[in-house]
Design goal:
single chain, 272 residues, alpha+beta, Arc Repressor Mutant, subunit A, 3 domains, 4-stranded mixed beta sheet, 3-stranded antiparallel beta sheet, 11 helices, 18% strand, elongated
Length: 272
């Protein structure tokens, strides 16, 4: 049955030998060179085998010379890893760290209902767009110090995905507003989570100081001030700033017209 199914897809005995070997060894990935000895292939034969399997969507190419292997042989349809498998394999290969962020985290915590088409991930190794199987990735390279405040999420197949935490996601909505198009919506998410007790002002301030920039601190400071947060907490943010006469907009995408908060150097422009 297996042989007939593979034959119908233009595959044959070598492919069967590959899957039998992968399942016997419990392999989740294979690298160029791994199959030469056990399957008695030349380097050229191995390269052609992996290329055929990848083009047939029976395995997925993650990086040059690295392929993801399904836990079971996909007989009737194409196979693709999920986002956790794709990111875990890629970061393991590059010896890096990642955390899923932006629109994916907005959806996870219920801020937005739409499931993103792409998977956004901060990481300390790669930058740019990549597709692994049917998983499109937007890889955002950041410094090691900007990784942290995460949660582990286990999928049904036992894979563990690393997500930005709820509070970190809120900070990112202000810090990375231009990439994620998240202001002014992010302000509403923060207000709602504070009111519901889902986050505490102190942890929001701690995350802002650790992962934000000066603009993030100023915007977060004025938001918390307007929410009547304790003055001692506000002074922690204020202490990280130097006096300035320059203004930044509350809503960066709106015209620069409105009232001014001098303490935080914020211009409350249209829609504030």
């Amino acid at each position: 049955m297996l042989y007939n199914a593979l034959m119908k897809r233009g595959l044959g005995q070598t492919e069967m030998a590959f899957f039998a070997y992968a399942q016997m060894r419990g392999l989740a990935t294979v690298r160029t060179g791994d199959l030469v000895s056990p399957l008695r292939l030349s380097a050229v034969q191995e390269r052609k085998l992996l290329s055929r399997l990848s083009k047939a969507a029976l395995i997925a190419r993650a990086w040059r010379g690295l392929y993801l292997v399904p836990p079971r042989i996909p007989l009737g349809a194409k196979w693709s890893p999920n986002e956790a498998q794709a990111l875990n394999a890629l970061m393991a290969e590059k010896k890096g760290r990642y955390q899923i962020c932006g629109p994916n985290a907005f959806n996870r915590y219920g801020y937005e209902g739409q499931i993103p088409v792409r998977v956004y991930a901060y990481n300390n190794r790669l930058s740019g767009e990549r597709v692994i199987g049917s998983v499109p990735l937007s890889l955002i390279k950041v410094a090691d110090v900007r990784l942290g405040s995460t949660e582990e999420v286990e999928s049904a197949d036992g894979q563990t995905a690393i997500y930005a935490s709820r509070v970190r996601t809120l900070v990112d909505s202000v810090y990375d507003w231009s990439r994620f198009d998240s202001l002014p919506r992010g302000y509403d998410w923060i207000r709602a989570d504070l009111a519901a007790g889902l986050i505490e002002p102190e942890e929001l301030v701690t995350a802002t100081l650790r992962y934000g920039d000066k603009g993030t601190i100023r915007r977060m400071g004025v938001l918390l001030e307007r929410e009547n947060i304790d003055e001692a907490i506000l002074r922690k943010l204020e202490g990280a700033l130097k006096p300035t006469v320059g203004l930044i907009s509350w809503i960066p995408t709106k015209p620069r017209r409105g009232t001014v908060n001098r303490r935080w150097g914020i211009l409350f422009n249209a829609g504030a």
